[in-house]
Amino acid sequence: MLFRQLFDEATWTYTYLIADPDTKEAILVDPVAEQVERDLRILKELGLTLRYCLETHIHADHVTGTGKLRDATGCLGIVPANAQATCADRFIQDGEVLQMGSIQIEAIATLGHTDSHMAYLVNGTHLLTGDSLFIRGCGRTDFQSGNAGAMYDAITQRLFTLPDETLVYPGHDYKGETVSTIGEEKQWNPRFVGQTRESFVDLMANLNLPNPKKIMEAVPANQECGKVAIAAR
Amino acid sequence: MLFRQLFDEATWTYTYLIADPDTKEAILVDPVAEQVERDLRILKELGLTLRYCLETHIHADHVTGTGKLRDATGCLGIVPANAQATCADRFIQDGEVLQMGSIQIEAIATLGHTDSHMAYLVNGTHLLTGDSLFIRGCGRTDFQSGNAGAMYDAITQRLFTLPDETLVYPGHDYKGETVSTIGEEKQWNPRFVGQTRESFVDLMANLNLPNPKKIMEAVPANQECGKVAIAAR
């Protein structure tokens, strides 16, 4: 498969472009509004047809590119089941497999950062974790219906049970790393190594992080697939 | 092989970690001084022994991590033939192959950005281009013995003659892209598509870019493998 990691510097967001090199069908996971022109250029240059924009969750730190990309390409916008996004063309359920040519994307419910969040396992090898598992970290759980206990359960019971060699591609990384593996995270992730569910919940309750700068704009915009932000420009 | 792309946000530099998963020997290409602690942590967590720090060239935009890494691990610092770096443990020649376990790294002289610059072809598939070929761009040629004609020759005659599917991993990318291929660059790179050697030289002479912020510090520091910068801290 064609697999590309793309980076948005303003929000440190990783977007993933996945395509079947034979059918030329493509999917973008967690596209960013400010990068839509770049993403459209890459699709065009690679001769790809965008079929889907897929969200891991309703983001609070950036506005999704889905609305603009849908307008430009006619692709479908897919969000996790139970997400408050009436604009979505389709909702994806835990365990559901999205098939696109030779590409298989399995949704794995990983609640905790928000109350509707999916990780996506691509062709059994590449795990896109969104804001659940990060490289040596995890997404925060202190706003937007976050729940630290649910995060602990999802990561330890759903993700850490995947094969050790599964590649971990997060939604963000703040130290300049790009990829890890399940085996590495089980061995070295300080949020989980030596933590019980209880101590993890306690740790997450005391991070005292500032709110994301864009939260007041991003959440309502993303519930409309990025449309609100576009209208305001 | 183990292959990891690492990012330094301050200078937009990509560092590459390459290792033989069996012998656990590792090499870092273009490490950055400010990221040495991160890089040492990753090496430790992955159980790797750093054998070499390899530079594509003497950088003007960041200070190399080689000096610190050599002090910490006893690795060897390798720089391109003719580079003004008396601190180097070893110089690598055009066409020379560095063998480390199952990893083969072939040096390809790609002058132009500086007068001593190598691209490195790893296991015949992954091409680390340093500041020669970028994704839809190329390194600048207007300081540090840069030579636009040499850049044009190196890229069109040495790199664009590699197989189309060769993966291109640059030393920097300023649009959030992480990888490309030789085929893509031959087809879409605006610095080369439709350009003659003459028009390319003219184009490069008229970019009017500001000097890198760190040039006065970085070049002399890198001629000492990063030692000067360390002493000044």
TrEMBL record, chains A, B:
GO terms for molecular function: hydrolase activity; metal ion binding; sulfur dioxygenase activity. CDD domains: POD-like_MBL-fold (cd07724). The keyword Nucleus does not apply. It comes from the Bacteria. Its cofactor is Fe(2+). GO terms for biological process: glutathione metabolic process; hydrogen sulfide metabolic process. The keyword Acetylation applies. Signal peptide: none annotated. SUPFAM superfamilies: Metallo-hydrolase/oxidoreductase. Keywords: Acetylation, Dioxygenase, Hydrolase, Iron, Metal-binding, Oxidoreductase, Transit peptide. Residues 12-172 form the Metallo-beta-lactamase domain. Pfam families: Lactamase_B. PANTHER family: PERSULFIDE DIOXYGENASE ETHE1 (PTHR43084), PERSULFIDE DIOXYGENASE ETHE1, MITOCHONDRIAL (PTHR43084:SF1). Belongs to the metallo-beta-lactamase superfamily. Glyoxalase II family. This is MBL fold metallo-hydrolase.
